[in-house]
Amino acid sequence: MGGFLDHMRTGLWRENPGLVQLLGLCPLLAVTSTFVNGLGLGIATLVVLTFSNVLVSATRRWIRQEIRIPIYVLIIASLVTCMELVFKAWFPALDRSLGIFIPLIVTNCAIVARAEIFASRNPVAASFFDGIGMGAGFALLLMAVGFIRELIGKGTIFADLDMLLGGEPVPGLVLVDGGWLLAILPPGAFFSLALAVALKNHFDRKRDAARRATMPGSARRTGGTT
Amino acid sequence: MSGGVIKGGVTLAAIAAICTLLVAATYQLTAERIAANEQAWLERSLEPALSGLFFEGSITESKLEIPPPHDLPGNDTAIIYRVFAEGAPVAALFVVTARDGYAGPIRILVGVGSDGAVTGVRIVEHRETPGLGDRIDQARSDWVYQFDGRSLGNPVGARWLLQVDGGDFDQLTGASVTPRAVIKAIRDTLIYFDAHRDEIFTLPASGEQS
Question: Do A67 and B4 touch (CB under 8 A)?
Answer without folding.
Answer: no
